[in-house]
Design a protein that fits this description.
Blueprint: E1 2-5, H1 15-24, E2 30-35, H2 47-56, E3 61-66, H3 74-79, E4 84-88, H4 95-104, E5 108-113, E6 131-135, H5 150-164, E7 169-173, H6 178-187, E8 191-194, H7 196-199, H8 204-212
Parallel strand pairs: 1-8, 2-3, 3-4, 4-5, 5-6, 6-7, 7-8
Length: 214
């Protein structure tokens, strides 16, 4: 399993220490949650913080934009060294264009859907995507409870990907732990995001390894 720990649950007073832990871990990516207080009812951190993270972190950056009009910030995300730029389906009026612009900027394109957005709405875009991010909580906060219907959505998305010949990987974000992680692995997920399960663990390296081994 590919694991992308979510920095949102890190200790921001000891960010360099937590990033050093990530560098020494088996995590294959680092997940960064940008929130604007409009698309979601919370504000997190922005590009100056991600630039600092990029200097210290050796893992590829998986940037999840929970903001309105994400197309305005494609160059900023690229300049932060992001490997993957995730935009919300619900935040883009012209999603096909945004995906093209992300690719033109040299990044992998990910599209995220909220728990109430059906997988079938991705039918005409999924072949162009490198990643689909399924939210398994309503976005905005770490530490929420996993929504079980996500397991059905993973299976449905796996079938849609096969049917359309898409190369997209399936990432799931929210309430992931060893139990829900195992269920997601069985359902067909490729990438697990985990915030609280990793950063609030007494042994974060072991928590990451548990998920990697699923
Ligand atoms: C929620 C964020 C998640 C969050 C996950 O809006 O997108 O990435 O950090 O946190 P946990 O794993 O604690 O649910
Ligand atoms: Zn996220």
């Amino acid at each position: 399993m590919i694991v992308s720990p979510s920095l949102l649950s890190a200790d921001f007073g000891n960010l360099a220490r937590d990033l050093e832990m990530i560098n020494h871990s088996k995590a294959q990516m680092l997940h960064l949650d940008v929130m604007d207080g409009v698309f979601v009812p919370n504000i997190s951190f922005g590009f100056p913080v991600i630039k600092y993270v990029q200097q210290l972190c050796k893992k590829p950056l998986d940037v999840h934009l929970m903001i309105v009009e994400p197309q305005k910030f494609i160059n900023e995300v690229r300049d932060c060294g992001a490997e993957i730029m995730n935009v919300h389906f619900e935040a883009c009026n012209h999603l096909d264009r945004v995906v093209q612009q992300i690719h033109d900027a040299g990044m992998k394109a990910g599209v995220t859907i909220n728990p109430a957005t059906p997988v079938c709405l991705l039918r005409d875009i999924v072949a162009q995507l490198d990643l689909v991010l399924l939210m398994s909580v309503n976005p905005g906060f770490g530490g929420q409870k996993f929504i079980p219907n996500t397991l059905n959505k993973v299976k449905e998305l796996r079938a849609l990907i096969a049917e359309t010949g898409s190369k997209a990987v399936i990432e799931v974000d929210g309430g992931v732990n060893d139990v829900t992680g195992r269920q997601l692995a069985e359902a067909g997920a490729d990438v697990l995001v985990a915030g609280n399960y990793v950063f609030k663990a007494s042994d974060p390296l072991a928590a990451i390894e548990t998920l990697v081994n699923l």
